[in-house]
Automatic annotation (TrEMBL):
GO terms for biological process: phosphorelay signal transduction system. Signal peptide: none annotated. It catalyses: ATP + protein L-histidine = ADP + protein N-phospho-L-histidine. Its EC number is 2.7.13.3. PROSITE patterns: HIS_KIN. It holds the Pfam family HATPase_c. It comes from Halanaeroarchaeum sulfurireducens. This is histidine kinase.
Length: 103
């Protein structure tokens, strides 16, 4: 079970979904699954390269797909507000994987 502000959790999901569609197209699949100590959100898009994983959460960072560079910053701030640690990885299908766990 996840204890979270419902509005903030919705905003977190919206930003991750928007990011997945923006980079993976309209046929991208996004999954949300529980973890023993949190949850994960993963997609079937092109993923986030290793050299960009630190930067993607920074305010204003964008790869130029017409984004503003604030979506993943918002995700990071919501996670911090809930005392969650965020780790980025690769989904089982090569897309992005965000894991949220209690710090």
């Amino acid at each position: 079970m996840i204890n979270a502000d419902p509005t903030m959790l919705q905003t977190l999901f919206e930003n991750l979904f928007r990011n997945a569609v923006g980079h993976g197209g309209f046929d991208v699949t996004v999954r949300v699954q529980p973890l023993p100590d949190g949850f994960l959100v993963e997609d079937t898009g092109s993923g986030i390269s290793m050299d960009l994983r630190e930067e993607v959460m920074e305010h204003g960072f964008t790869t130029g797909y017409s984004g503003t560079g604030i979506g993943l910053t918002i995700v990071q701030r919501i996670a911090e507000d809930h005392d969650w640690c965020v780790s980025l990885g690769v989904s089982s299908e090569g897309g992005a994987r965000f894991e949220f766990r209690q710090c």
